[in-house]
Specification:
Mean pLDDT: 83
Order of helices and strands: HHHHHHHHHHHHH
CATH architecture of the largest domain: Orthogonal Bundle
Radius of gyration: 23 Å
CATH topology of the largest domain: MetI-like fold
Largest sheet: none
Number of domains: 2
CATH class of the largest domain: Mainly Alpha
Shape: globular
Distance between the termini: 35 Å
Number of helices: 13
Length: 276
Amino acid sequence: MLLTYAKRTGFYLLVAFIIFESIFPFYYAIITSFKSGTALFEVSYLPTTFSLDNYTAVLTSGSFPRNLLNSVFVSAVTVILALLFAVTAAYALSRVRFRGRSLLLLTILSVSMFPQIAVLAGLFEVIRAFGLYNTLWGLIFSYTIFTLPFTVWVLTTFMRDLPLEIEEAAIVDGAKPWVIIWRVFLPLMWPALVTTGLLAFIAAWNEFLFALTFTSDNATRTVPVAIALLSGASQFEIPWGVIMAASVIVTVPLVVLVLIFQRKIVSGLTAGGVKG
C-alpha cells in the first residue's frame, strides 16, 4: 500500500514538473509583455504592472501586422497543398498494389531525416531558378516539401486501417478512385486530417531558417523572422517588452487551435494503434 502511494505521488510530481517546465516560459513572457521601462529588468514571477504599450507598439509600428498576415497565408496554403497531395498519395500507397510501394513510402519518409541546413543551398538554387525568391510562394513551396513526408506517412497508415469492404461497396456502385477518396474516405479521416494539418500549420508558422534565407524585405517576411529582427534605437538597446508582446501574439493562436482540436489530435495520433 505504501509503495503504491509512493508511486502515485512520484507520478503526479513528475507530471506537475513537466507542466511547470512547459508553461512557465510562456507565462513569464506574458507577464513581461505587460511591463515597460525599468520594470522589464526587475525579476518578478507575479504580475506587478499592467501596460498595453508593448502590444500597441508592435501592432502599430513597423511591418509586424503585414508579417502576421504573411504567416497566416503561408501556413494556411501550405496545409491545404500538403493535405491535398498527401491524401491522393496515401490512397495510392495504401490501396493500390504496385511494385516498390514499400520502398517508395520509406523513400518519402527518409526525406524528413535531412536537416534543413543540409538542403538549404540546393533548395535556394531551385527557388531562384523558378523565380520564387523573396515571394511567399517560395516559402510555400519549401514548406510543402518538408511537411509532405509526415502527412503522407500518417494518412497512409490511417487509410490502410480503413475497412476494405467500404471501398469495395463504392466500386460496386460504380465510384471512381477520385470519388472514393473525396466521398468515402475523407469523411472517415477527419481525426488524421486535423492532426496532420495542425502539425503542418505549426511547423510552417514557426519555421525560421527558410523564411530568413528566402526573403529579403519586410513585405514578404513571416513573424519568426520579424521578431528576430526587432531592434531598438541602437544595437545595444533590445526592446524586450516588444519582443515578448510579439511572441505572445504569435503563440496564442497556436494554443487556441490545439485546445479546440485536442480530441481530434489524440484520436488522430492513436489511430491504427489498436486493431481488433
